[in-house]
Amino acid sequence: MKLKAIGITVALAVAGSAWAATVRDEPIQPLEAAKVTNPGKVELGKKLFFDPRLSRSGFISCNSCHNLSMGGSDNLKTSIGHNWQEGPINSPTVLNSSLAVAQFWDGRAATLKEQAGGPIANPGEMAFTHDLAIDVLQSIPGYVAEFKSVFGSSRVDIDKVTSAIAAFEETLVTPNSAFDAWLKGDDKALNTRELAGYKLFKDSGCVACHNGPAVGGTSFQKMGVVEPYKTASTAEGRAGVTGKDEDRFNFKVPTLRNVELTYPYFHDGAAQTLEEAVEIMGRLQLGRKYSQEEVGDIVAFLKTLTGDQPTFTMPMLPPSSNTTPKPRPFEK
Hints:
By secondary structure, the chain is mainly alpha-helical. Helices cover 38% and strands 3% of the residues.
């Protein structure tokens, strides 16, 4: 029995080595599915992600701006906040955000957990306070029981809330794109134009910023290297966090995973189409004027980065109690 177990171990090791040998040596690596270690916490986080009662209006949830049916974004130039306020910046996708160096365009949140608390208390977004949000959750018996099951205590606090939301968001990974299949050795996964687009993407230098499993998200770069970027947006980028003038207009490089789903593009949402975004980035960042055919080739490659979208049963949210604070959707 012992020898048989050893044989299985060796066989698995050999199979694993064989698989590793098939992965192409490229600046982009395959994206692997998330591993869930605490399903109860993930399920609680999913409920909180979809629950609009964490907002003052009782209408806006995390999913409002990071719609999981729309590539983890809202497909708006800038998001809509409490009382129909116009947001200051484009909503980045939540998909694969666990692979990013930091959260938000300016990186002001180091982790998903830290990010999760921001919109709840932002007067231009969910327009609540952490204390009021906790009062709502603590008044709902179903939530109290679930927090006790997950955290061992029926006391709800913002640390537990953001920890649970982050645990759910960490599962929002999108593997198994056509490009992943090609990276793992499937020569038939990409057609001639898609391969030409990837070659041009590499040869042009796009991979200097858009690399790794997320194809971006791991550095901050200046928007407008060769030519200045002109925009009406007041967003300062990294300078708003560091206070350093040299960080002005430095933004987190967005992931290109599922990029065909996350239009419009850039921090100000100014590029409405993928073709427009490729043309602008080539000109402003690389000093290169792509032909229409070249733009089409790169776009064809970028569309191969769309992976499996998150699939799950929509959560049934626990009902409010008689003591649950009522939403105030029309208050300014």
